[in-house]
What does this fold into?
Amino acid sequence: MKGDLDGHSTLIARNHDELDVLKHKGDRNYYEFTLTKGQRKPVGTVSLELTKADPKKNSFNLTVGVG
It folds into this structure.
């Protein structure tokens, strides 16, 4: 996510402590998870799979599965 569009960046937690702050607001359901490359993981009602990650460029490819 580039920039700050209507304050959405305040709804993204980057660590456990930030996730706790969001949970205490009570607006939404939040799920804590760790993705490993090539492993499909169910998160809420969808499943996520990390297909590619480049830490130097801060970029990643993510596959979202439904159903």
About this structure: The chain has a mean pLDDT of 80. The radius of gyration is 13 Å. The beta strands are 40-43, 46-54, 59-66. The chain is about 15% helix and 30% strand.
